[in-house]
Design brief:
Number of helices: 24
Structural class: alpha/beta
Shape: globular
Strand order of the largest sheet: 4-3-5-6-7
Helix content: 25-40%
Strand content: 5-15%
Radius of gyration: 28 Å
Number of strands: 21
Distance between the termini: 76 Å
Largest sheet: 5 strands, mixed
Amino acid sequence: MPVMMENCCGLCTHSPSTPCPRAVECLSDGPLCHTDESCTLKRESWKNAVNRKGTTKPVIFIGAGTCGLGAGAAATMVAIREFLEARSLHCHMVEVGCIGLCAVEPIVDIELPGRPRVSFMEVTHDRVGVLLESMLVRGEAPVEMALCQFPGNGEPWSGIPGYDEHPFFAPQTRWVLENCGVMDPVSLEEYLAAGGYRAFSTALRTLTPEQVCSTVEESGLRGRGGGGFPSGKKWRFALNTPSGSKYVICNADEGDPGAFMDRAVIEGDPHRLIEGIAIASYAIGANNAYIYIRAEYPLAIQRLKVALEQAEGNGLLGANIFDSGFDLNIMIKMGAGAFVCGEETALIHSIEGQRGMPSPKPPFPAISGLFGKPTVINNVETLANVPGIIRSGADWFRSKGTPGSPGTKVFALSGKISNTGLIEVAMGTSLDDILFGMGGGIPDGKAFKAVQIGGPSGGCIPAGHTGLLIDYESLGAFGAMMGSGGLVVMDEDTCMVDVAKFFMDFIQRESCGKCIPCREGTRRMLEILRAITRGYRDETPEQSLERFRGIVNLERLGQVIRKTSLCGLGQTAPNPVLSTLRWFKDEYEAHIFERRCPAGVCTGLLTYSIDEDKCRGCTLCARKCPSGAIKGARKSPHYIVTQECIGCGACLEVCPFGAVKVQ
């Protein structure tokens, strides 16, 4: 083991007989033994890190996560380089991950020597010149483009709110997302300078595997990917199961529609995940670990590969880490995007080279998992919490959240919400604070209708219940579930029957087909929903009777699927239908009995008519109608024969006078 000096980070590889000859003052928070040539991590690496303190050049940070690139960040980077070259300006350029506020991407931060770092929003390629001319040439911050300024040395910028004052960032508790959007995700030096890998070093040097499991168990950390099982208890099961080999698997197969938390964490801070995996592996005695990530995340995979190479190249992974005798190899396994592989036994089969299909439990993976060996499976967010717990202690983690749900939770806000993006809040935060505080409310003055939480396996929370606290106990009592943390917001223009049909279609297509209740039951539920929302004009009496029979059995069918499906995904598959039936039964009744869609979404149920006062008799609608349902003489008001209308909407699209009405 290394000989440690006071306040040493422990990230060196000296043997007991060759301690560091002296200590150097780290730019972050204390003396470190990184001067001797035998150190794996050299002092120069640290001097170039820690937010580039003392730099004499401006630093430009570009949000280059998937969301930023989708909003045009690549073109923004090209425009920045062209501007700098044309004016012979010298700046550091750093690509960072997503800071969370995806709604205003591309985001560009600029830090001038001696001044705080400022974040600017919606910096598309055509706005680069205005921004850089103002900041780099005139030394003035364009307030109208500014998002916020970060704490830092030097004179603050006037007229720009601080990061801790911004309504999106101020209420958050960013533990998992601490470095996302702030530091270079593929810089090991920056992660080390911010305290990275010290928790892993502390665990290896001062804690036994049993103590690590106990610390995690005492923290109350629960799995952030599904049912919320206590992580420390799962680790202890694996630790206490005798075996010659054990495994840790990080489940990064994020398949829920509207969920992008794991992707953003990996893109913005891959070393945090690696450190969490390393600590979990040490805790259960695993020498091999897998990161199971869907191939649709190419940027996350790329940054993860770079981070793994850096960790291995600097002795943080591999053989005899820190002279501790502990070996660890972490491998990436790319999945093909099957939703069912988010279920842990199906994921295990996929890694083994088999078809991704669930297996009955018990035995649970912690007892018999990958290749029949004890295996711990946690998702990205769960493992990303571990370094902070080991570094700061169980009480620190319990200082936020509720007694039964300690810590924080990352949520992805999407749908009809002003501030789409990622947030991290303390457990027990109300849905009101999330949606109408950090989320900015519903755009265009529309009324809030519901929010889908927990993905296809979750449930809807309707208006009137947004005072609900977001923690495992409160959601469970309400009949919803946390899931991985996707929040899909819906406004008054959303048809809840159509929402249920969308999720049921997704679930049915993603069913592995192994068990009959899930395979056939979800298909039948989807058929019923399609019958409810389809046009009735060509419906035969037999089809009408079949539709009513299906409706009567819809809820009962959902309960049967819930009770008899093999895996957790099948057991929660009916939730979208059962949840919308519970809270929006009036919409189902309107579709079934009145044959209309109150939100005007289900095109097969829309009724078209012509306002005689607005119609000028131009005949354009009649000429475009494919069924000849529009009648009337030229220069006289026209009308629609309802029995002949097929509901295509062609008349609505071509009418220049707004005379066509739809209900």
